[in-house]
Amino acid sequence: PLERMDRYAPDIQDFLRKNGFPRNKSRDISEVRFESNQPPQQIIRKQWQFHDLEDQHAIILDKGFLTLQTTCYDLFDSFLSMLCDALDIVDGVVEGLIVERIGLRYVNTFTTDEGGEDWRSYLQEGIRGLQSDLLQPSSALDVHQTTAFTDVGTIAMRVLQNRNHRFLPPDLEFHGLSKPPHLHGVTEGCLSTIIDVDHIDGSTFPYDRVQLEERAWSLKNTTHKLTFDEIFTSHAVNQWQ
After folding, report:
1. Distances in Å between the alpha carbon of 106 and those of 15, 46, 63, 70, 206?
2. Phi and psi for 122 in degrees, rounded to 5?
3. d(Cα 209, Cα 17) in Å, to the nearest integer?
4. Own/partner long-range contacts of 7-10 (Cβ < 8 Å, ≥24 apart)
């Protein structure tokens, strides 16, 4: 953690403002810490958030991390370039940035209407959940998780379902970002199926853009192969193109 981040933040914000993130939506975060034999402590800390004009991309900055979050994902090349441009700015201001973890997380959400196409037709058999005549189809909600090592890190894949218009896993929020177009107009009773794939490389090295890009591409390639070869069916890919 960079304890002087509150001093660095104005300079970082000024560079980001001139490079596509003019909206400052920074806020205070309430955090509760638990330590053995100690009463819980509530700590208020600053979190800096900078958005583009359309609220489709956000850079979230804390003392210990930088996150690029988007609800308008296009190609990995442009996403990674945007992330590394932001990291270049932070590294230039704080001088001597250290990378301790790279995480790439994709959240794919699709909705199905009751009486319409079965959500299971979009997912491979191994993650379709329990099927039984004893369960009322309109009442079942599935939760599935697989965690494993890969050649480049650790990956966690989760399937979460709900009928209350939640489009993200419980630990995430939109941070004021606009929702993707396909999630507008979802009616009451629609089943939302969330596919959450989180891939982490725990390597430690002084920040170097080329090295980070190489490691990020390795995370992406494995994640992509898992998602489209092992999670989604060919029917899903053809439907969504």
Report:
1. 27, 26, 24, 10, 26
2. -95, -15
3. 21
4. 8/90, 8/93, 8/94, 9/46, 9/48, 9/61
Contact 176/55 with Cβ under 8 angstroms?
yes
Kind plus residue range of the DSSP H or E element containing 8: helix 5-17
Q: Helices 5-17 and 76-94, interaxial angle, to 10°?
A: 130
Q: How does DSSP classify residue 115?
A: T
The end-to-end CA distance of the chain, in Å, is: 42
124 vs 147: CA distance, rounded Å: 17
pLDDT in tens, 135-183: 886 788 889 999 999 999 999 999 999 988 888 898 887 678 888 877 7
